Amino acid sequence: MSKRHGSYGFDAPWALLGLVLGAVALLGLAAVSFALGIVAAGLAFLGGALYTLASAASYVYTTRRGRFAVWAQELARLRGDERLLDLGCGTGAVLLLAAERLDLGRATGVDRWRAQHQPGDSEPVARANAVAEGVSERVELVAGDLRDLPFGDEAFDVVVSSQAVHKIPEAEGRDKAVSEAYRVLRPGGLMLIADFQHTPDYEETLRGLGVVDVRRRDAGWRFWYGGPWSGTGILEARKPGGGSAVAGAGTEAVKPAG
Questions:
Q1: Contact 126, 91 (CB under 8 A)
Q2: What is the value of pTM for the model shown?
Q3: What distance in Å separates the CA atoms of residue 123 and residue 89, rounded to the nearest whole number?
Q4: CB distance 199 to 216 below 8 Å
Q5: Which of 23, 39, 61, 93 is most buried as measured by Cβ atoms within 10 A of its Cβ?
Q6: pLDDT, tens digit, for every residue of 78-132?
Q7: Quick one: CA dihedral 73, 245, 165, 217, positive or negative?
Q8: Residue 186 is inside which H or E element, if any?
Q9: 3-state secondary structure 19-70
Q10: 164 φ, ψ (degrees, to nearest 5)
């Protein structure tokens, strides 16, 4: 994986802050317990603090490096001439990794860039990152709702998403987002969704749409947000019909008027 030059921030920084503050509080309780001669309690608090610090370290690794390594491995299968769509692209962490592999293709990112979901996320930051990574000429950014994508049917060869669909609060909305991703994917096209929640529901939605070639797997320790209890699952699916190769020209990537 090449070194990243953009500014991608931290996934859910408030969760990381909570881990750090929790570790500090436990260390304080351990110090007080030892000072009062309550050794058993001190050891328990110290153990909890070290465990929480380890969780924070895992979180930092995932958001700064681990998620990039996992996605670099997933995207290694790209041939280079695909039209790729990143759902909820944010600052472009996955979008720009993909763009680096698309010598003859194009990467499109769609997002609403709502700061309450991810502080620091904005379209200008994503554009600046594309310039920093040297792929701005291969990247298009579009403001849009994942539940109503502004693209035509079968417009993309590959659809990816990383930790975005779960941010839609209602189950019906998440179902609609996955259905929209299926709509804009060409027959035989590849879908990859990484999320720490709801991947079984995404699979159920796709199977209801007639997808047979769909599977879920664990992304591994590099995609843990603190530990295995907050690990990331990857949903991989292929739309029925067409060839199985991850390539080919998509249709017009603009939703018709009306």
A1: yes
A2: 0.88
A3: 9
A4: yes
A5: 93
A6: 999 999 999 999 999 999 999 999 999 999 999 998 765 566 778 999 999 999 9
A7: negative
A8: strand 185-195
A9: HHHHHHHHHHHHHHHHHCCCHHHHHHHHHHHHHHHHHHHHHHHHHHHHHHHH
A10: -125, -45
Q: What angle do CA 179, 181, 182 make, to 5 degrees?
A: 65
Cβ-based neighbour number of residue 106 at 10 Å? 19
User: Dihedral, CA atoms, 13, 16, 21, 24, nearest 10 degrees?
Assistant: -140
CB 211 within 8 A of CB 179: no
Distance between CA 240 and CA 234 in Å, rounded? 19
Cα gap 51→228, rounded to integer Å: 13
For strand 185-195 and strand 233-238, is the pairing parallel, antiparallel, or unpaired?
antiparallel
Alpha helices (runs of H) in the chain, residue ranges in sequence order: 13-35, 39-61, 67-75, 93-101, 123-132, 171-184, 199-208
Tokens of 201: 């529901």
Query: What tokens were used for 125?
Result: 């930051």
pLDDT tens digits, one per residue of 190-237: 999 999 999 999 999 999 999 999 999 999 999 999 999 899 999 999
**Are the C-beta atoms of 202 and 235 separated by less than 8 Å?**
yes
DSSP 78: -
Q: Which residues contact 245 (CB under 8 A, 6 or more apart)?
A: 79, 188
Q: Which two three-digit tokens encode residue 119?
A: 């502080």
Closest-CA residue to 159 (of 250, 65, 255): 250
